[in-house]
Amino acid sequence: MNQNVINIESKFACFKDYWSPRVIAELNDYQFKLVKAKGKFVWHTHQETDEAFIVIDGTLKIEFRDRSVNLNPGEMFVVRKGVEHRPIAQDECKIMILEPKNVINTGDSGGELTASNDIWV
Amino acid sequence: MNQNVINIESKFACFKDYWSPRVIAELNDYQFKLVKAKGKFVWHTHQETDEAFIVIDGTLKIEFRDRSVNLNPGEMFVVRKGVEHRPIAQDECKIMILEPKNVINTGDSGGELTASNDIWV
């Protein structure tokens, strides 16, 4: 439970691994998480919740089955619950995610990119 | 219900009034709101929810009864529910707030700075 000022860039400097969310803050039963993205993530769906992506640095593509969107720094997108999606970053991209506690990064897909949950930085 | 890419800076360009939150996105029953701040807000408390402040541009001071914090661009802070606080911006400051829908900006204090709720931009 962080009750100090949180500097987002400083928090990104504390870890290097890709697709491994780090929690930086909680708001009620939600968490702000930082992710370093590079390459293709897995197609997955969160059946129980929306998921917000805010790009801090770099470019994030989010593919859907019928379209895709590109997010640049200062841009955000909310993936609605139940909508299958796949994040892709051609080059390293820094993202802030907001979603409820206990959401698994790979949703209902699992696999080797499934990260430990609730790791704070 | 915005299902396009949301450019935060472009949204800030759509309004000028201070202390008047504009909704830019919803995540489940939460809302992302943009606020242009200048001057002193009122002391107030949200008894029912935490409130996250993310500074996009400028400097925001948040006073508490026993201390204060200064937030610069790229910094964030979560005010816990029930904690009395007063935001202050000496110069114009651009803030993104995250909190549940239907939260009133002046909390339990009311007064002339109470803004209309759920105004989208």
Note the topology:
The structure is a homodimer of 121-residue chains.
Chain A: E1 6-7, H1 8-12, E2 22-27, E3 30-40, E4 51-57, E5 60-63, E6 68-71, E7 75-79, E8 86-100
Antiparallel strand pairs in A: 2-3, 3-8, 4-7, 4-8, 5-6, 5-8
Walk me through the structure.
- The structure is a homodimer of 121-residue chains.
- Helices cover 4% and strands 45% of the residues of chain A.
- Chain A has 121 residues and is mainly beta.
- In chain A, strands 2, 3, 4, 5, 6, 7 and 8 form a seven-stranded antiparallel β-sheet that branches.
- In chain A, strand 2 (22-27) and strand 3 (30-40) form a beta hairpin.
- Chain A is globular and about 40 Å long.
- The N and C termini of chain A lie close together (11 Å).
- At the A-B interface, strand 1, strand 2, strand 4, strand 6 and strand 7 of A face strand 1, strand 2, strand 4, strand 6 and strand 7 of B.
